[in-house]
Amino acid sequence: MILVTCAVEAELDFLAPRDDVATLVTGVGPVEAACSVTAALAQRPYRLLINAGIAGAFGDTPRIGDGVAVKDDSMEIGLEDGAPLALPNGERVICTARSDERLVTGLDAAGFRVVRGITVSLVTATTTTARRLASELRAEIETMEGFAALRAAERCGVPAMEVRGISNRCGARQTSGWDFKAGRDGLRRILGALMELL
């Protein structure tokens, strides 16, 4: 059984029912995603988690309407200046989670762009923040659930893949080009291609 998750139902309203696929609407943001995914994976065995939804892009590529495969997704956890957080006994902060490498490679071969994501709890609304996230963290897209869903799957021992449709450019909202339908269409294309790989 495959579990496909999204933040809001409208992101996956195109998905046709399949006997081997369950869907889960997690709610918006990293806390809702982590809690919902963990609870679902604890209730029954799944062979794969797919985190799917729309996302914003830093810069002009990927373009609005593109479907992208997220190879890894990070979250800012620790010190604001990016220095390592000193924890006792060699403990470390986990701030990056990765998608299944085989599936990323398959989507790349199918012609979809492979990107790095960053998960935020506040949508980027200024050019200054967008530039910082893109340059310091090498982020190409911004999500609100990706890292949380991938990391929850890692902790539960379940392979995972994140796919996104680009709905806007990150930065000032008045110039972001927000287009939910275009983002959902991009998501539909890449999710369809992913299902063919399974």
Lay out the secondary structure:
Elements: E1 2-6, E2 21-25, H1 30-43, E3 48-57, E4 67-75, E5 96-98, H2 101-109, E6 113-119, H3 127-136, E7 141-143, H4 146-156, E8 160-169, H5 180-197
Helix pairs in contact: 1-4
Key words describing this protein structure:
198 residues, Rossmann fold, 5 helices, 31% helix
SS-based structural class? alpha/beta
Strand order in the largest sheet: 3-7-6-4-8
What is the percent of helical residues? 25-40%
Q: Could you tell me the number of beta strands?
A: 8
Tell me what the CATH architecture is: 3-Layer(aba) Sandwich
Find the CATH topology: Rossmann fold
Low-confidence parts, pLDDT < 50 over ≥5 residues?
A: none
Sheet-strand content, in percent, reads 25-35%
Under CATH at level 1, the class stands as: Alpha Beta
Q: Please indicate the count of domains.
A: 1
Radius of gyration: 16 Å
What is the straight-line distance between the termini? Answer: 11 Å
The CATH homologous superfamily: Nucleoside phosphorylase domain
Walk me through this protein's architecture.
The chain is of the alpha/beta class and 198 residues long. It has a single domain, classed as Nucleoside phosphorylase domain (Rossmann fold), CATH 3.40.50. 31% of the residues lie in helices and 26% in strands. The chain is built from five helices and eight strands, in the order ββαβββαβαβαβα. The protein has helices at residues 30-43, 101-109, 127-136, 146-156, 180-197, and strands at 2-6, 21-25, 48-57, 67-75, 96-98, 113-119, 141-143, 160-169. A five-stranded mixed beta barrel has the order 3-7-6-4-8. Strand 6, helix 3 (127-136) and strand 7 form a beta-alpha-beta unit. Helix 1 runs parallel beside helix 4. The protein is globular, with a radius of gyration of 16 Å. The mean pLDDT is 93.
